[in-house]
Amino acid sequence: xxxxxxxxxxxxxxxxxxxxxxxxxxxxxxxxxLDRTRFPRVKLCGGWxxxxxxxxxxxxxxxxxxxxxxxxxxxxxxxGRCHTLPGQGHFxxxxxxxxxxxxxxxxxxxxxxxxxxxQTDDRYVVDGRFSAKWLIGAGGTHCPVARTLFPKKAASxxxxxxxxxxxxxxxxxRTRVGGDGEPELLxxxxxxxxxxxxxxxxxxxxxxxxxxxxxxxxxxxxxxEFFTTSGHVPESxxxxxxxxxxxxxxxxxxSHLDGCQRDGAFSVGDxxxxxxxxxxxxxxxxxxxxxxxxxxxVRGAPGSYRTDLERHPVIRDYALARxxxxxxxxxxxxxxxGGTRLPALPPLTRWSQEATAKGFAxxxxxxxxxxxxxxxxxxxxxxxxxxxxxxx
Length: 392
Description:
Distance between the termini: 65 Å
Helix content: 25-40%
């Protein structure tokens, strides 16, 4: 079979792939974008965009042509109370957002399911039909490029159950907690995940995510009970809650960057595993990684991709959030371990509940961690002290 030659092949037409392809096309490269499905297509996702997304896209929210819901408040259910807190962001419908980015890419879009990848000399050949010097894997959690060319991730993915469905604008307006587009967030008591209920006009997006995939079903059943008994889901839409669908993806881990680039091949988006370690936001890091991979190719410096990721303020903030989370878990395990069972802790005080809810709302708004440099210095000190004690 005769090969069709391109400068670059992007596998996957989601946000990471479309943004990467657009940057390459604007630089003058002949780009093929392969995806197994025809767009527009339904994508399981809450459709939450934090403000930095628009800077990476170089698009104003006002210029986005499809449905968009801005929010300046979120409603965090935690400790038996609803905390209405300031925030900032937008919600979109992924079926529309992804189609917009794909059409904007300027690449030659080909519906094709990738099955085989081979490397010959300095080119990659996909299924004996398409060849290119550069190969970008943007096919999501189970991307064939990442699976074929890069090491398997050591950590387990997080789990999610969600659904987006029509419920009727009047019914949604009558049962929502706040204004249209304002998310209701149910922070799980064990802080091992959270659930959401997002009104988008006549649409509702409802779901649950947990850090342990095996706990997502129990998490969803708890969330379902809360949303339905509190009256925050229209009665006419209750049967839709039987149609939840599951998927998984990876949170940011610095070890994932070991599989970001080699010999002209790149991994971006969910295939690389860059979602925020606390909120699990995935669209921003997907778009960012696609843009940085394209920039490295255009500069003729593919090896800079990893460094560009590590040094970017967004990824640096993710790394700090992950380290803070791991430190908190280590402290909890230390004080609860040693063969001594601690007495049950009293319920969280109102102050600690409020602080937890505010911190979560801050992260959900995509804001950087405050006093980041000072926190990094403290963590370096903790690591140094631990190393000294280990050596002693």
